[in-house]
Design goal:
Blueprint (H helix, E strand, L loop, with lengths): L1 H34 L10 E6 L5 H10 L6 H11 L1 H4 L3 E7 L4 H10 L4 E5 L6 H9 L8 H9 L30 E5 L4 H18 L2 H7 L4 H14 L6 H13 L12 H9 L42 H9 L10 E4 L5 E4 L2 H12 L1
Antiparallel strand pairs: 1-2, 3-4, 5-6
Helix pairs in contact: 2-3, 3-5, 6-7, 7-8, 9-13, 10-11, 10-13, 11-13
Length: 366
């Protein structure tokens, strides 16, 4: 009996050992497999990966798994934490990641490599100097801020000016103001000023064409350039998008249907800010006015309190929404309006006469 018991115990131990070995072997193979390339044998596929500033390792891991670059997001997160990727990752666009790479290879590439493109956001409503300052801080090794300003403030000196018909609309001696479309750009790390200007002008041209803004503007008695001028004024006036059509219509009415009260003057505060801030040495832009518009830079052609009609150029880079509102002006809902007032909450009310406008001032600002 003891012999049989001993033999049974030995068999049980052997079976348990085999089960443990099998479980360990299976676990090891499974763990090893999830760290292996998605395409271990073939050339794999190269995927363009965009990593935004502030993105977490979990978000990146999920993105890489969705893109087919890794087998398991959790494995990536564990290995990334061990290697310190979460504290050293540089945001940007990586174009050299391939599904034939292991998780470790991908992490090393993100950890030690440089993005192939930087992500640069240009906000709506900025003027050229602000755009130049933003680009100068993005780590573009070959970008020269002064060369960018030379090209954009003096379009005749831009080598590729002939590629963009809109530049012919700029008055002699004036800048590309308003024509550098505000957007999020993926800029190659080795891009110079010329390449960046080309990228922004190309984007402007594509946006205008794709949205038929040029033909819409012409149907409303505006050239494409005048549409951008109008849009730039609207951009700096409006806080809430629902007010865009109304403000665009008021300005359009004042120029194209001048009446006895407005006699062709736009009376735009942002245009006065632009006139004031265009003086040499200005480094801070768009501060509130400290006096009535007539008294600030009154000789500047951008002061629309002292000069009738459109200013010579746009005053900023307007958004697509502002350009759409300008191209569609006048909106029939505001056909009789020649005045508008920004309330304390940022919303705008419209008026047909100066008397109505004065009533709004008393109602909303006092």
């Amino acid at each position: 009996m003891r012999r049989r018991g001993s033999r049974g115990a030995i068999i049980a131990v052997l079976l348990l050992g085999l089960l443990i070995f099998g479980a360990v072997y299976f676990a090891w193979n499974t763990a090893s497999a999830i760290f292996e390339p998605v395409d271990p044998a073939g050339p794999g596929k190269t995927v363009r990966v965009v990593i935004q500033s502030g993105e977490s390792t979990q978000q990146i891991a999920d993105q890489l798994q969705t893109d087919g670059l890794i087998r398991n997001a959790l494995a990536f997160r564990i290995w990334a934490r061990i290697k310190g990727l979460d504290t050293h990752l540089q945001a940007g666009v990586y174009t050299n990641l391939n599904s034939s790479m292991t998780i470790s290879d991908i992490i090393d590439s993100l950890l030690n490599g440089q993005p192939n493109e930087y992500i640069v956001r240009i906000p709506d409503g900025w003027r050229i100097q602000q755009i130049a300052n933003q680009l100068a801080t993005q780590g573009l090794a070959k970008f020269d801020k002064q060369q960018f300003l030379q090209y954009t403030l003096h379009p005749s000196q831009f080598p590729d000016a002939a590629k963009y018909p809109i530049l012919k609309s700029i008055p002699s001696g004036d800048s590309m103001e308003g024509l550098l479309f505000p957007d999020t750009y993926y800029i190659p790390v080795d891009a110079d000023a010329r390449e960046v200007v080309n990228q922004m002008l190309t984007e402007f041209t594509n946006v205008v064409k794709q949205n038929h803004l040029d033909t819409q503007a012409q149907a409303h008695h505006l050239t494409t350039y005048q549409m951008v001028i109008l849009a730039s004024l609207v951009e700096r006036e409006v806080v809430f998008s629902q007010d865009l059509p109304g403000v665009a219509s008021v300005y359009w009415n004042r120029v194209n249907r001048p009446n006895a009260e407005t006699v062709g003057f736009l009376d735009s505060d942002p245009s006065v800010m632009y006139a004031r801030d265009s003086q040499p040495g200005t480094t801070v832009f768009w501060k509130n006015l400290t006096d009535i518009g007539d008294n600030i830079a009154p000789n500047s052609p951008w002061n629309t309190y002292t000069h009738k009609g459109w200013p010579p150029t746009p005053i900023c880079s307007p958004s697509l929404a502002s350009m759409k509102a300008a191209a569609a002006a006048p909106d029939p809902r505001y056909s009789k309006d020649y005045f508008f007032l920004g309330k304390k909450d940022g919303h705008i009310v419209f008026a047909a006469t100066k008397a109505e406008f004065d009533q709004d001032v008393q109602k909303y600002l006092h």
